[in-house]
Amino acid sequence: MPAEPSDEIPGPQVPKTELEELQIKSQSVADESLESTRRMLALCEESKEAGIRTLVALDDQGECGSWDAKHCYVGRARRTT
C-alpha cells in the first residue's frame, strides 16, 4: 500500500516574503536568547552551590578568622560556635 501524502514529513518551508524571513529570524534570536538565559541561571545556581560547599568546608575545618573562636562572622551573618 503506498504512503499517503499526509504521512510524509514536510521539509523546511522556504519563506516567500521578507516579512516571513524577518519573523523566522526574530523567532530564532528569541530562542537563542532564552537558551542563553537558561545557561546563565544554571551557572548562577552552580556558583551558589559552590559557595555553600565552601562555607560548609570552612566551618568543618574550624576556619574562623575572628578574634574569638566562639564567635564566627561569615559575611554579615553572625554564627556562634
Please describe what this structure looks like:
- The protein is mainly alpha-helical and 81 residues long.
- The protein has one domain.
- 54% of the residues lie in helices and 10% in strands.
- It has 1 helix and 2 strands, in the order αββ.
- A two-stranded antiparallel sheet has the order 1-2.
- The longest helix has 44 residues.
- It starts with 17 loop residues before the first helix and ends with a strand.
- The model has no long low-confidence stretch (mean pLDDT 79).
Outline type: elongated
Q: How much helix, percentage-wise, in residues?
A: 40-55%
Biggest beta sheet summary: 2 strands, antiparallel
- Mean pLDDT reading: 79
Number of helices: 1
How many beta-strand elements? Answer: 2
Rg on CA atoms, Å: 28 Å
The N- to C-terminal Cα distance equals 79 Å
**Class by alpha and beta content:** mainly alpha
Provide a concise account of the structure shown.
The chain has 81 residues and is mainly alpha-helical. Helices cover 54% and strands 10% of the residues.
Would you spell out the secondary-structure blueprint of this structure?
Elements lengths: L17 H44 L9 E4 L2 E4 L1
GO molecular function: SNAP receptor activity; syntaxin binding
Key structural traits:
81 residues; mainly alpha; two-stranded antiparallel sheet; 1 helix; 54% helix; 10% strand; elongated; SNAP receptor activity
